[in-house]
Amino acid sequence: MLNVNSTTFETTRIPETWAKRSLSQDLVVLPTDSSKRAWMASGIPEEHLRLCPRGVDSGRFHPGVEPLKLGRRRGRSVLEYKTRFLNISDFISAPRKNILGMLRVWIKTTSAHDDAILILKLSGYRYRWWWPDRFKRTLSAIEREIGKSRRKAAPVVFYDQVLTESQMPSLYAAATHYWSMSYGEGWDFAMMEAGAMGLHLIAPQHSAYTAYLDESVAQMIPSQRIPADFNRGKGFLGELFKGSDWWEPDEEAAADFVRQAIRTAGEGLPTARARIARDYTWEQSAKCLIKILEELHERHGKKF
């Protein structure tokens, strides 16, 4: 029977074990050119690869949803802050998601008097017992390095509640901007969903982001290619990223976008809502995948 692998990766090369498995499959389906280049750089022939963008449920993720109540910070409701930045990440991916880099930019750039707040939805925070203490120690080291404490910056919400699918649109609705400082993405569903919600997007100009975003619909952070360093190469995830590169977003450029957002709250900026609702539906993604599979079936005359 035919075997097709629909997958993705976040850096410039895939692990050697993945490359060997890919050659034994009849086809590899990838969502973006960035992933396609990673497979080809690892020795996979271009004819063995197909592109099929992923999608978003823009019927569920759309403007006008009632915001999720996120409590209070510094005597005010979170929803009372004029400019509200959101980032959604899993704690196990925190090194690649560059959460500490985001917090460094936030602490250096903002002040306690700014009418702004950063909402970090860190999935898995409470279930990975070793991460919170290590995270706090590293964050304290960043404060010492900068010479400024978080108390002197605009507030940060660390939100770790588990939300249902029906609640997720309300979390996006609680923000005005979605911001990523990631070193590399295979797709980033959260960025796509935030765009469908009509949030203003701040994204690094690299990897999957360039497949569906550009400067006409988002603020793109210049980035430079550097060696990937996931937990200094330790553990299973570190092994996956060995020998590859990813991209470092420019923190000064990110700071400029944050300052601009706080001054204007995004007024006058376009959003990616129309593009995403038009070009990136799950129906379109499904039709693309079905066409790829039908062509493969006709060529080989085998079942899946």
General description of the model:
The protein has 304 residues and is α/β, with parallel strands linked by helices. The protein has helices at residues 16-24, 33-41, 94-97, 99-109, 130-146, 168-173, 189-196, 209-212, 235-241, 251-264, 273-279, 282-300; strands at 4-6, 27-30, 49-51, 72-73, 76-77, 83-90, 116-123, 156-159, 177-179, 200-204, 219-221, 223-227, 245-249. It has two domains: 4-54 and 281-300, no CATH class; 72-279, Rossmann fold. It is built from twelve helices and 13 strands. Strands 8-7-6-9-10-11 form a six-stranded parallel sheet, sandwiched between helices. A three-stranded parallel sheet has the order 1-2-3, with helices on both faces. Helix 4 (99-109) packs across helix 10. The longest helix has 19 residues, at 282-300.
